[in-house]
Amino acid sequence: MKNQHTPAYAWLHRQQERLHRLDHLQSIAAWDQATHMPPGGNDARSAALAELATLMHRDRADPSLAQRLAAARQEPLNDWQAANLREIERAWQRTQAVPEALVERRTVVTSQCEHAWRSQRPRNDWAGFAANLREVLALVRQEAHHLGDALGLSPYDALLDHYEPGMRSVDVARLFGNLRQWLPALIRQVQARQAREDVLPLVGPFPLPAQRSVCEQMVRWLGFDFAHGRLDVSTHPFTGGVPEDVRLTTRFRDDECLQALLGTIHETGHGRYEQNLPREWLGQPVALARSMAIHESQSLFFEMQLAAHPGFARHLSPLLVQAFGDQAAFEPDNLHKLMTRVAPGLIRVEADELTYPAHIVLRFEIERALIEGEAEVDDIPALWDAAMHDLLGLDTRSNYRDGPMQDVHWPAGLFGYFPCYSLGAMYAAQWMAAMHHTLPDVDAQIHAGELNGVFGWLREHIWQAGSRWPTDELAQRASGETLNPAHYRAHLERRYGG
Amino acid sequence: MKNQHTPAYAWLHRQQERLHRLDHLQSIAAWDQATHMPPGGNDARSAALAELATLMHRDRADPSLAQRLAAARQEPLNDWQAANLREIERAWQRTQAVPEALVERRTVVTSQCEHAWRSQRPRNDWAGFAANLREVLALVRQEAHHLGDALGLSPYDALLDHYEPGMRSVDVARLFGNLRQWLPALIRQVQARQAREDVLPLVGPFPLPAQRSVCEQMVRWLGFDFAHGRLDVSTHPFTGGVPEDVRLTTRFRDDECLQALLGTIHETGHGRYEQNLPREWLGQPVALARSMAIHESQSLFFEMQLAAHPGFARHLSPLLVQAFGDQAAFEPDNLHKLMTRVAPGLIRVEADELTYPAHIVLRFEIERALIEGEAEVDDIPALWDAAMHDLLGLDTRSNYRDGPMQDVHWPAGLFGYFPCYSLGAMYAAQWMAAMHHTLPDVDAQIHAGELNGVFGWLREHIWQAGSRWPTDELAQRASGETLNPAHYRAHLERRYGG
């Protein structure tokens, strides 16, 4: 890079590098908080993280930025630099759109709501929770209005755009509306068919050290680089750290062994994306993952397109036999059946591949209405119950704990994130469809355990691109078209039988 | 605290709180670097830590500080606030005495020297090491001159004063000169006597999970609070983290089991000091440990005054038998003999209680001469060899690896730290002597495993004081006198036989 001729851009580059390095310390401290920190350290840790966040916010809101961004736009930049500038500008527009006092108030109120939620949920205390959530919603609506005004978007779109740049709720509504038409019937058909199938259950217990060993072997086999990452345990699995040092987490229970393994494979998809972002641009926004849906497309590619592929169980089976001894349930066909078992349930994070999108459609519809002012907190239970009836045929009345109180997202102030899960599943199916064009024998490769072709495709088309292109262009370049939900439907119908 | 009437002090208070919180993130990231970080993460981590250090330095060097400190001195402050202001002022004087360019240059040069040292030491490459160390020394001398000018101290005293406020090299020289007179003869006597003793060696192997369990039990028994701390493994044991979340580390080898246990007990002393600093002042300099010698006095109290006490092996023995099965060497008297075995050796960190101070005396004499310009890097090997001959009767010629290249301190630019180890041992003996006045049956209590009296004394006199008083006043209040080396000599002669 020749920054000597581009002083405004060079200044921005250095600022982003500084922010990236401080973000590194935040990521590691947050990872430690979830994995290793003793409980007595929590208050001091939260205060420390908030202090650094304040410093970083001040840097991001530097009043000289408007001028520097304008000047940098006039400087000679190569394609990557121009893309980087676009991403810097995007972040800055959001930062300066919201008054600092509102950000601070929101941080306090969401933190209190989330904290209270942790004890309200087990008590099924909807009234207590709703009181707090009303406060959160009021502030998030304000924030969404500020952002919407600055970005020329509707309030909900302004929130969605943070996680999924360029995506609009009208598109999500169309995609999800389509899903609503065929998904419930498909679920019923599959349930009826699977009711007649013989599936052998897993027979535990499955000792945790052996589960950990199986997971580590699988993560390694899937190409995760342990010289630049770790696998640990946390209450809620996540992928944290930084691209140079990716921290995967998982969780174990000793009566089951597939959940931890599939969860770990899911996080490995996130992890390989992070580890393979464009290294020469690390520290700059252009080297960040493109969006949350694209991130989920990687974890769900690993979990659903690879691990739940009919050819993959052959590779899991010997690992499980070696770790836990032989049992009939470990036979590959049976393992595959276990991994593709469909059973409507109340809890999103326990849902199977086919019923999962129903949970997302429901949340999207409700949270969009909440942010756009078409619904209030008190309307949530009825909306929830109606959608669960329509989509999964389940009754949720009075069960707030396993209904609208089950997720951390809303109490934490995260609105606009939920759609990314199912958009990611759609993208993952689209990548697999595209792969079949350049790797016609990809199914045979997966059967044979030859995954280099698959990883090479992902590296070239997704990982190495970082945020070089807007999402639609990334999808176009990778698969010849923007998001096309037909691939997802075809995938589900092929796998679960139409 | 009524900060509303003390605006300058209140500003300083808030600044220190901010620095403490950022320091929290540095401590945890540094702990992670030494315990969990995969090797590929090192460059990014070092860059992140350096970035935050730069931000913190800028805050500490805020040009408005001179005026604020002067104003705060005029404000009504209680005793703790006044002590806090004294400590803030002390740190600021040091910060503003050294030009920022010199600090940055020193950071780069010491980092390079330390990095090169890691591969030069195994190769015994004195010439290569000396070339780098000359550069380090030149910069540290400059820094020491700047500090000395600002503080009215000799260059070496200016460095020593950082770790041991108020201590001067003339005092250290007197204390260590006295040691030099009686220590070599005592070592020879003890060696001759111990040569005739029967001591049963430990018979390994000692599986690491069992060692870890013994260490955890011991740490807990010694009162360390695992709700506010952890015990992990690192290459070089240390105590890190923050008072609210203290991170002890240790290391294990499977052919031995006492080294890890005693090392862990040593770190527990550091840890309990940190965990029991005055909680209502946490985040302010007045709540920091008084000095490095006082810190070492706590770790060495736990290791030498407690664990190596003749009555303590009774409490170790059953733990070891339970973990590794019975063996004759675990008999309490034999354990005590093993823990008090004297054998002059080349390596400081492997030295026993009696020969350890010889290593420190030698380093102090050499580093003082280096900083004061009375010796050069090329003189070190001859000075080292002469002192090792006089003090321990050992020949070190041509063995640089196990001579002046054995410690990380000088390549890392740490001059003025070494004396604290032996000053700490002296203070530890003084605390035990003082304890005998208020707890006349302290020996019987240790035999009985009743340690609450001991811990209560340390809590009241050392831990809870933080940096409330200058070191001499702390010692005076705790033991009725300032540092008096007679207690240390008496302790060694009593334990090892005069």
UniProtKB/TrEMBL annotation, chains A, B:
<feature type="active site" description="Proton donor/acceptor">
    <location>
        <position position="267"/>
    </location>
</feature>
<dbReference type="Pfam" id="PF02074">
    <property type="entry name" value="Peptidase_M32"/>
</dbReference>
<keyword id="KW-0645">Protease</keyword>
<feature type="binding site">
    <location>
        <position position="266"/>
    </location>
    <ligand>
        <name>Zn(2+)</name>
    </ligand>
</feature>
<dbReference type="InterPro" id="IPR001333">
    <property type="entry name" value="Peptidase_M32_Taq"/>
</dbReference>
<protein>
    <recommendedName>
        <fullName>Metal-dependent carboxypeptidase</fullName>
        <ecNumber>3.4.17.19</ecNumber>
    </recommendedName>
</protein>
<feature type="binding site">
    <location>
        <position position="296"/>
    </location>
    <ligand>
        <name>Zn(2+)</name>
    </ligand>
</feature>
<comment type="similarity">
    <text>Belongs to the peptidase M32 family.</text>
</comment>
<dbReference type="GO" id="GO:0008270">
    <property type="term" value="F:zinc ion binding"/>
</dbReference>
<feature type="binding site">
    <location>
        <position position="270"/>
    </location>
    <ligand>
        <name>Zn(2+)</name>
    </ligand>
</feature>
<dbReference type="GO" id="GO:0004181">
    <property type="term" value="F:metallocarboxypeptidase activity"/>
</dbReference>
<comment type="function">
    <text>Broad specificity carboxypetidase that releases amino acids sequentially from the C-terminus, including neutral, aromatic, polar and basic residues.</text>
</comment>
<keyword id="KW-0378">Hydrolase</keyword>
<keyword id="KW-0121">Carboxypeptidase</keyword>
<dbReference type="GO" id="GO:0006508">
    <property type="term" value="P:proteolysis"/>
</dbReference>
<keyword id="KW-0482">Metalloprotease</keyword>
<keyword id="KW-0479">Metal-binding</keyword>
<keyword id="KW-0862">Zinc</keyword>
